Amino acid sequence: MKNGADPAVEVKGLTKRFGPLEVLRGVTLSAYDGEVIAILGSSGSGKSTLLRCINMLEVPDGGTVAIAGEPILLKERRGGGHEPADQAQIDRLRQKLGMVFQSFNLWSHLTVLENVTEAPVHVQGRPKAEATAEALVLLEKVGLADKRNHYPSQISGGQAQRAAIARALAMRPQLMLFDEPTSSLDPELVGDVLRVIRTLAEEGRTMMLVTHEMAFAREVANRVIFLHQGKVEEEGSPAEVFGNPRSERCRQFISSQLRHA
Amino acid sequence: MDFAFLYSSFLRLIAGIPLTLQLAFSSIGLGFCLAVLLAAMMRSRLLPLAWIAEGFVFVFRGTPLLVQIFLIYYGLGQFRPYLDEMGIWWFFRSPYYCALLALTLNTAAYGAEIVRGGLQSVPHGQIEAARAFGMSGFTLYRRIVAPIALRQALPAYGNEIILMIKATSLVSTITLMEVTGLAHKIISETFRAFEVFFVAGAIYLAINFAMARLIALAEDRIAPDLGRAAATIEMGKLSH
Lengths: 261, 240
Description:
The complex is a heterodimer. Chain A is of the alpha/beta class. Helix content of chain A is about 35%, strand content about 25%. In chain A, the strands form 3 sheets. A 6-stranded mixed beta sheet of chain A has the order 8-9-10-3-11-12, sandwiched between helices. Chain A has a 4-stranded antiparallel beta sheet with strand order 2-1-4-5, covered by helices on one side. Chain B has a single domain, classed as MetI-like (MetI-like fold, Orthogonal Bundle). The radius of gyration of chain B is 22 Å and the shape is flat. Chain B starts with a helix and ends with a helix. Classes of the chains: A alpha/beta, B mainly alpha. The interface between A and B is medium-sized, with 31 and 25 residues.
């Protein structure tokens, strides 16, 4: 943790409900530069919603989100709930956050290379030649240089997810958000994706990772957050959370997950 | 077969091709613009806009094109004094403009449904990914939504284009001398309906053959990973 520096993300008292369902019930956490935070929890614990609230794909009902010290401005929506007060601000702050989705969400009409250059060129306004050169380096890094001219429908899920990681990195984000990046992959394809994420962690990138891969979380994260019913139930170093969880629910969750693994 | 007669009919009928193509392409082009507008209205949160668009589609898809042509060309003639007063009689007096209007409105109704389907088929996750990278508004539509919708809609729209080329033959009923109109004229002089319509049919077939090739090329260009080209590549892989 750097003293005096603003956290990459600071979330305070976040609440979100879908109809009668309270998904987040006051979540507070910060991610500082260089941290790798793994967010664990059973399904329905609100971990994906938390991640999606950070980049406003879901607009929280209460609480605040600040990116690099800048609070995201929200306003009351007619008929309840909130909406972004300033779309330009959201668009600008989202460029600092590289999102990787569970189902990849590569743009199906663009090749792998075009997927990686699309946002740098058309959102950030960078020169196409520069974006392409950088994209080729990133594709090399995730092991997809030879697939650059393939369309998303022509590559495997593992390759698609690595392309999606390259696409997110191309924005030169301050923070990477991973929303269950391996959950929709065949088991034999998970390893390649985890290897790429591990490399990023070793480079000191700031990352928040929602995952079910317990062993992986334990290995790469320097902080683990366990969510239960929309609240932070346990938080600490991997050694603390996995080795000696204070909460009974966290203990049960971890032992059940490790049994299945 | 009297090849000399077929050939002379052919030479006279090709004079109608420019008008056929002009009507087809103008109505398809204008109709597409209107179709996009209608599709946007149908998806609008302003319900009255959506109702107007849905009503338009309901009427123009549900009635025969021939009746629409007659209504506009013959039917509106009854209201000449009003149209004169509004200064638009010159438009409705012309069989060409009436035909163009009827064809445009008709194809717009079908096109609107195709465009709406295309927009609906754009996976939500891909739009979300664009938003997550800071894209919004018009850029999001231009770079992501529209191209993906087009990929989905192109095969159906290609079909509509071919239907429209054939539908232009109906305008011969309001005195326009396109291919079918000329065919009627030649038959009234020669009483050789079979040969003349045979040649006319062959001309439509040739136009649509070329059109189908163009549509296939466009599909391969816009969606190289889907459809024909991709299928050929897959078959190639299997055979090795």
